[in-house]
What does this fold into?
Amino acid sequence: MTDDLLTVREVANKKNPDMDISAIPISCRGNYNRAMTGRSMRAAIKSHCQMCMGWQPSLVPGCTAPDCPLFPYRPGADRPRREPTAKQIEARKAGAARLVLARAAKCSTDDSAPGSIQN
It folds into this structure.
């Protein structure tokens, strides 16, 4: 049997034979399954953090283990945001202008609709 034909449980047991999947809360199993099959790096990080916090997802953002190599990548971590480029700023302005025009056009057509209130 090849690895691509293995079930999630078989893959998980092959990679971590000590882990009992039935001990993982149902709400956390999806991330664990995606992580163990190698389909999602984000799921692997999230699943590791949940496991570290006793499978309590609500505790992950309050993690107090800054020495953990995954600490900056944990779900709910504050990440520094990049400043938008000039091209992104121009695109936002153009999108906002199109939105204003579309709303103005919609309002002018709605005024002549039957049942509209006119002053």
